[in-house]
C-alpha cells in the first residue's frame, strides 16, 4: 500500500504520495477514552497529496532558521492569553512554562534526527512558507481531515495497529514504563497521562522513524509528540467540511488544532508551544489548491 518516496531537493524532507480516498472521521461513542469533540462521525473525501514521511526534525528546523534568520515564538517569548515565556515543559517537575526553553533547548537531550518541539503554529507556518519559496512547490500544514486520513492509512480501528494500546511500543513513542519511573505526567489541563504497559526505550522524544510505519509508509503518526494542523479549533464536527479541506472561519479562529491519536483532538492558540508539539508538512501536487472555501 506504500507509495514511492521523493525529495524536492537533496536536504528537503522525504515525501510520500498519499492516495485519494474516503474515510469515516472521528470516534464512535463506544470507543474508550473518546469524547464528544470527536463526534459526530462523518464521511470525508480526501484528494491525493504528498506528505512528509516523518516529523520535521531538529536538523530540518535548524536549516530553516540558519537560512532565514527566523526566531521562534518561544525565543521571542510571544505572549498570548494563557501562555508564558519560553516553552511549556512536561519533563520538568512540576510541569509549566519555562523561560529560555525553545526548539534548540527544550529541557531534555535532542539529536538532529529528533522531532523539533516547542514549535508554535506560527513557527510551523513560517517553516512551510520558507520551504515553498525554496523549492517552488506549495507546502502547508495538513487539514485535520487529511491528518486523520493519513494516520489511519485505510484502517478503522482506534489505532492503526489495532485496538490494544499496550502494543503501541512497536509502533510509537508513548507514555510507557520508561516514562513512568520519572513520576506522574500531567497535561496543561491537569489530565494524567495514560501509561502503556510496554517499553519503547525512549522516555522523551525518539528519533524520527524509530518505529514501524503505517500502511502509507508514514512514521510516528501516533505518539512521539503532537502535530499541528491548519484548522481553526471547533468543539464538534457538526459543521466540519466533508471535502478534506481545513475549517477556516477566520472570524472565529481563536485556536488551532494539534493531533496525536487517530480521533483525539485538542485546541491551542497559534503562539502556543510545548515540548510535545511539532509539525510535518504536506506538499500539494499540481492542481491541488492550498485551501478550499466552505
UniProtKB/TrEMBL annotation:
Residues 266-294 are annotated as: Disordered. Transmembrane segments: none annotated. Coiled coil: none annotated. Residues 12-245 form the Sulfatase-modifying factor enzyme-like domain. Signal peptide: none annotated. Residues 283-294 have a biased composition (Pro residues). InterPro entries: CTDL_fold, Sulfatase_Mod_Factor_Kinase, SUMF_dom, SUMF_sf. One of its GO terms (molecular function) is formylglycine-generating oxidase activity. PANTHER family: BLL6746 PROTEIN, SULFATASE MODIFYING FACTOR 1, 2. This is Formylglycine-generating enzyme family protein.
Amino acid at each position: 500500500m506504500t507509495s514511492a518516496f521523493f525529495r524536492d531537493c537533496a536536504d528537503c524532507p522525504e515525501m510520500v504520495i498519499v492516495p485519494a480516498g474516503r474515510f469515516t472521521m472521528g470516534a464512535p461513542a463506544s470507543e474508550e477514552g473518546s469524547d464528544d469533540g470527536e463526534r459526530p462521525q462523518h464521511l470525508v473525501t480526501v484528494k491525493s497529496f504528498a506528505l512528509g514521511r516523518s516529523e520535521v526534525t531538529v536538523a530540518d528546523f535548524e536549516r530553516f532558521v540558519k537560512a532565514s534568520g527566523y526566531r521562534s515564538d518561544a525565543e521571542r517569548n510571544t505572549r498570548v492569553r494563557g501562555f508564558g515565556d519560553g516553552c511549556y515543559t512536561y519533563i520538568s517537575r512540576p510541569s509549566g512554562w519555562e523561560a529560555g526553553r525553545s526548539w534548540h533547548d527544550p529541557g531534555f537531550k535532542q539529536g538532529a534526527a529528533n522531532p523539533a518541539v516547542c514549535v508554535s503554529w506560527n513557527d510551523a507556518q513560517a517553516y512551510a512558507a520558507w520551504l515553498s519559496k525554496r523549492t517552488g512547490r506549495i507546502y502547508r500544514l495538513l487539514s485535520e481531515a487529511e491528518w486523520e486520513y493519513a494516520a489511519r492509512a485505510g484502517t478503522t480501528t482506534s489505532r492503526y495497529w489495532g485496538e490494544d494500546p499496550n502494543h503501541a511500543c512497536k509502533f510509537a513513542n508513548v507514555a510507557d514504563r520508561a516514562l513512568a519511573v520519572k513520576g506522574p505526567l500531567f497535561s496543561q489541563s491537569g489530565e494524567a497521562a495514560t501509561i502503556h504497559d510496554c517499553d519503547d526505550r525512549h522516555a522523551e522524544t525518539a528519533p524520527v522513524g524509530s518505529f514501524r510505519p503505517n500502511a502509507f509508509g508514514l512514521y510516528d503518526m501516533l505518539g512521539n509528540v503532537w502535530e499541528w494542523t491548519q484548522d481553526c479549533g471547533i468543539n464538534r464536527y457538526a459543521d466540519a467540511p466533508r471535502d478534506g479541506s481545513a475549517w477556516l472561519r477566520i472570524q472565529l479562529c481563536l485556536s488551532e488544532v494539534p493531533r496525536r491519536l487517530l480521533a483525539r483532538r485538542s485546541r491551542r492558540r497559534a503562539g502556543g508551544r510545548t515540548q510535545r508539539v511539532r509539525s510535518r508538512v504536506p506538499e500539494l501536487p499540481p492542481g491541488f489548491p492550498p485551501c478550499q472555501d466552505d
